[in-house]
Amino acid sequence: MDNKYIEKMLSKMDKDLSAHGMSRRDAMKMAGLSGAGLFMGGATGAHAEEEKKIEKTDAKGKIVILGGGLSGMSTAARLTLHLDNPDITVIEPQELSVSYQPGQTLVGGGIWDEDDIAFKRDDFLPDGVKVIKEKGILFNPQKNQLTTDKGTVVSYDYLIIAMGLQLDFERIRGLEEAGRAYSAGDNERLLKALGDDGICSIYTAKGATKTWEQMQKYIAQAKSGKKTNFVFTHPNTPIKCGGAPKKIMYLTNARLKEAGARENAELTFYPNGGAMFGVPEYHDAILGQFKREKFKWHYRHNLIEVDKEKKEAVFDAKWQEKGPWDPVLKDFEVIPKHEKRRVPYDFLHVVPPQIAPREIAESDLGSAKGWVPVNKETLQHIRYENVFAIGDIAQVPMGKTGGSARKQYKVLVDNLISVMNGKKPEAKYAGYTVCPLITDIGTVMLAEFDWTVKPTPSFPLDPTVERWMWWLMKIYLLKPMTMYGMLSGRA
Known about the structure:
Among the domains are: 55-93 and 133-165 and 357-431, FAD/NAD(P)-binding domain (3-Layer(bba) Sandwich), CATH 3.50.50; 168-354, 3-Layer(bba) Sandwich (FAD/NAD(P)-binding domain), CATH 3.50.50. It is globular. By secondary structure, the protein is of the alpha/beta class. The protein is 30% helix and 23% strand. The protein starts with a helix and ends in an 8-residue tail after the last helix. It is built from 12 helices and 21 strands. Keywords: FAD, Flavoprotein, Oxidoreductase, Quinone, Transit peptide.
């Protein structure tokens, strides 16, 4: 744990608390916390407790981790804590692969700068772990081998797939030239495709910076008195952080109000699904927030085209109509309908379709849908017992968030060590996911849930209520918890 970094964040948080006439201890009481923790600056003590629980094993085997993002590097770090003589290789070409992706929303809303979320892979490489700065592209799980884009053949005894996902902009007509992008790496092609006329996306770091630039441009337009349409999308695929498409909408709304330009702006959300959130309690809360802020929304709209010349977003809109009476079923038939709908925009935030990397999808390691098929509890591959997957690429329900990875990587390490020792994997991931849903500059609704599709709050507070407390956690605590806690293999 980097104590200086933690102290710096806590100092900033204390100033914010002081401005509201509150101490850190008062804040802790509000959250229902009774012992030392990050709110009290007790991170080092927490790590000391974690150290006591760690048991070393002399299990042997060559472990290859495909992907050096948050999931991959955290797993590597935790394995080094548990193995006496670890033999671990990470395959990751991107220098900034561990950059703090949850912060991209804050960059897009002008809260943070891009430099605030940029972290170098090699600064978080655990001692003794080797890194191959190449990309895995060919896989032969029958022979326990893979080949990189530079022709390096890598053998393994155990493989952990943590490659993340790709942003499939090429599926959207008008943005095909953007191709398929990753959150990290060179995305100049994507930025060029988006242009400078109101189209943006927070799903890359530089894209988040561009979002803030475009947002300011069209807030100024609204402030000048011109009616301005702000359009926000959500695609028909699984995505990183299902709350992000709404977070950037809330932040746009906050910035418009701050500029005194809200009355000249129309904010409309076009989700592909039929609800605001998969958990009913959070859906109801968000719907109430939308009504309060006078947002508009249209369910079952999937973005399929962007007409840059006319500044129109084209959606595939779906609905159902009652058909003729069915005498056998003794009910009316339901006829699915759909049509193209063109929506004018000034500012368009695009959430691209998201898919597994083509290299995995087209290999024996992938499933029909592209993702790596694993047992959702043990994270072990359903066909290859020496292969595990974690994070965005794993085919598990509701698991594409950093909060999910924080629960998954400990389960994976325990189960991999069990397999290395000739035992069955018994640790289980319960599907925990957390979405700190930013609803304004200064408030967050902390949506926690699991596969029960019910709220599973970690604190004794109503989880559907927006709180300044969770804003403090989002701004000051979650990043250091991730960068110096999880990436140390302990948090």
